[in-house]
Amino acid sequence: MSNTFPATPGQWHNRYLLMRHGHSLANQQRSIISSPERGLVGYGLSPRGREQLDGLLADWRWAAPTRILHSDFLRTTETAARIAQHFGLRLEAETRLRERHFGAFEGEGDDHYAEVWARDALDPAHRHAGVEAVAEVAARMREVIDQLEQRYAGETLLLVSHGDPLQILLTALEGRELSRHRERPPLAPASITVL
């Protein structure tokens, strides 16, 4: 699946492919897995996620990446590793691409996302129940792009992350209010958005 993000011509020094990890065991179990304690060692790709990546790689329609940075959670690492192997690249873990931390909802059912997102719409700085604020996620994600822009030019950079952080980053890059990040169409597992 592909999404195209409208960019101002000449805005970027590099090409960016933003990718949500493939379908994971957390998705399959409908569980919120956002803490490093769980996400680094468990809840990797599901069989469906591995199939998604097989299909994506067989029908790759984007520029070939020259570098791959990924969240160090297992599901994003496994996603990035399959792509890196296909293109003969090495992996670069980047902790700022991690999942948004959902605080007290960790390990709970994914039906709790709606409660968090409703609060986000009222206040992107909220930290209800220990949830990482939207504004904090936007800042760390944007920082990755800003540093890559300073470090490289002419690269095609694949950033493998998670649904919520990528939605928040795209909202920030669009210059929209962060409280509106859920107004964007949700990013499907194994989808790629081109900046």
UniProtKB/TrEMBL annotation:
It comes from Halomonas ventosae. PANTHER family: PHOSPHOGLYCERATE MUTASE FAMILY PROTEIN (PTHR47821). Pfam families: His_Phos_1. It comes from the Bacteria. SMART domains: PGAM (SM00855). This is Putative phosphoglycerate mutase. InterPro entries: His_Pase_superF_clade-1, His_PPase_superfam.
